[in-house]
């Protein structure tokens, strides 16, 4: 009889313990609304919104897609190019959801998933700054939740936006972009000179003749330069989402603003001479600079940039230009820590 009572007590304790554990798990699940879209207008589209952009040439629509739901931490992603797409950011899906940081993919006007008016009068940094501002308003981003991350050309855009609208920002992230095109061009020559001499001479000969469409030129640049400084893997090992992003690049806007070469801004491309290095001191918003040891952008210069803003921090990944894929551990650990430090008001330089 006594043994039966003991057995009953032990069984009841185990049962209650399991129920309590299940209740605890359920309560934890209920507390997280990160993937809950049920009260959102974009639930039916899975987070996708086409946002109207007012321009002097009419109203056009840009593609955005929200992932997650966090009222305090929302990161708007500005892709590179100009004329590239959000697709180069797709491996963010493997890291930010676990940290419950909301992020928004966004294709700028004339990029693959957005409207393409193909009007070069709209291909200016001034236009794109105002475009970002219209996207911000449409998505209800503000100084209490709005983090802006720009990579490559997106970094230029992010700096220009912050210099005009930093009061709207909670945090700023500049990824793989220097604050000066002339300084970038100087560094490109340093990297070029590290290529095999014969290869570099061939590349420069093609550029001198402006024979950028020559398949041999493309072969040399992709085989010898891209695999060292863009994404540090053999071309046949590049991830599908990066290849898709390159396939979707709009060459018209890219050539108009950047030019043909990876060793600087060519001809009369509109970004030639762009430089805001002496204005970095105007930035008071917490800012993270992300560089890559093997990037096309000088990592030492990226570190220097973090000392010029008023509240800066820098990390250097063991990576090329697409640092989020080359060295995701360093990239995302640093990015997540920055966002959460700013949110928790524990940010230190």
TrEMBL record:
Residues crossing the lipid bilayer are none
Assigned keywords, A-Z: Hydrolase
Q: Which Pfam family, any one of them, does this sequence belong to? A: Abhydrolase_1
Q: Does the keyword Oxidoreductase apply?
A: no
What is an example of a GO molecular function annotated in this UniProt entry?
Answer: peptidase activity
Catalytic residues in the record: 152, 295, 321
SUPFAM superfamilies the UniProt entry points to: alpha/beta-Hydrolases
InterPro entries named in the record: AB_hydrolase_1 (IPR000073), AB_hydrolase_fold (IPR029058), AB_hydrolase_sf (IPR050266), Peptidase_S33 (IPR002410), Pro_imino_pep (IPR005945)
* Sequence ranges assigned to domain AB hydrolase-1 in this UniProt record: 75-328
Q: Its GO CC terms?
A: membrane
One of the GO BP terms on file: proteolysis
Family (UniProt): Belongs to the peptidase S33 family.
The protein here is known as Proline iminopeptidase-family hydrolase
Source species of the chain: Cerina litoralis
């Amino acid at each position: 009889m006594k043994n039966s009572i003991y057995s009953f007590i032990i069984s009841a304790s185990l049962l209650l313990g399991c129920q309590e554990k299940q209740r605890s798990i359920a309560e934890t699940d209920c507390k997280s609304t990160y993937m809950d879209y049920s009260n959102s207008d974009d639930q039916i589209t899975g987070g996708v919104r086409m946002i109207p952009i007012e321009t002097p040439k009419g109203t056009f629509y840009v593609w955005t897609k929200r992932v997650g739901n966090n009222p305090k931490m929302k990161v708007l992603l500005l892709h590179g190019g100009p004329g590239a797409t959000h697709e180069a950011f797709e491996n963010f899906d493997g890291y930010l959801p676990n940290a419950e940081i909301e992020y928004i993919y966004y294709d700028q006007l004339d990029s693959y998933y957005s409207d393409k008016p193909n009007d070069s009068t709209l291909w200016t940094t001034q236009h794109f700054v105002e475009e970002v501002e219209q996207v911000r308003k449409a998505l209800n981003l503000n100084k209490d939740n709005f983090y802006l991350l720009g990579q490559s050309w997106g970094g230029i855009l992010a700096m220009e936006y912050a210099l005009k609208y930093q009061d709207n920002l909670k945090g700023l992230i500049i990824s793989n972009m220097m604050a000066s095109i002339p300084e970038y061009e100087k560094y490109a020559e340093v990297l070029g000179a590290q290529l095999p001499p014969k290869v570099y001479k061939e590349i420069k000969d093609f550029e001198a003749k402006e024979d950028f469409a020559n398949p041999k030129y493309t072969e040399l640049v992709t085989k010898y330069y891209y695999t060292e400084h863009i994404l540090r893997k053999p071309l046949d090992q590049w991830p599908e989402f990066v290849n898709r992003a390159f396939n979707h690049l709009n060459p018209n806007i890219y050539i108009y603003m950047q030019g043909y070469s990876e060793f600087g801004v060519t001809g009369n491309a509109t970004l030639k001479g762009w430089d805001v290095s002496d204005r970095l001191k105007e930035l008071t918003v917490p800012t993270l600079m992300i560089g890559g040891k093997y990037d096309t952008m000088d990592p030492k210069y990226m570190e220097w940039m973090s000392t010029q803003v008023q509240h800066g921090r820098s990390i250097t990944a063991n990576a090329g230009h697409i640092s989020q894929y080359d060295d995701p551990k360093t990239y995302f650990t640093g990015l997540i820590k920055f966002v959460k430090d700013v949110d928790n008001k524990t940010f230190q330089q």
